[in-house]
């Protein structure tokens, strides 16, 4: 009974670990897709154009907020749009062309902001994302600007450094997670400009802290962000190895169980053959009688 319950226990443990591992998305693109799917649930037959709707996200995305708005491509190109921290000026277009599009705005707070590798920098703001989708089939669209770039204003959501000589920098994360760092707008140190869809943030270079100060309790937000990133990667690796080990043990248990079942069947058949005294007759197996029968004798008159 104990042997039979062992594979079942392994299956339960493996399934539980897989569910835990899959419950927390670790890929930025996966988060984008989850937010997109929940954004489209906001639209019904009575949804209005150019009206901003909050997106209800599941509990496993706590720390991520999203809003969505629907536009006509022609109206967006002629008039632009002002949506929260994003300002799209006239001339903004999407490719390929669609009649109606849906803009999805994302705000990533801790710990999701640590999914992007910003080694050597420290975040001064949440990560803001702007993505465009076809309103009919959810396919992703590319945002293009004609003259004026997209403006992203971090004034109300950033921590501008107060130290003299420290300038904040703009960060752009493309659709593959690659980081580009550049200077902010000339109008304000808290305003970034962009030309494509993706994710933006305000950051600064991490200060080089002497080893002695670090041991005394330094570290800073940059080190904490890097530690969180290493923790996420390490947890994924350890979880994968643990699942692989459990699956290996499960396979070994199943093979051993099959062998034991086969051996038991062979022993049972051998016992039955011995009890019936089976012998080969030509190419067939047939039962034979023992030598205890009364031998025939010739009767004398």
UniProtKB/TrEMBL annotation:
The chain crosses the membrane at residues 231-255. Keywords: Membrane, Signal, Transmembrane, Transmembrane helix. Pfam families: DUF1191 (PF06697). One of its GO terms (cellular component) is membrane. Residues 1-22 form the signal peptide. InterPro entries: DUF1191. The keyword Membrane applies. This is Uncharacterized protein.
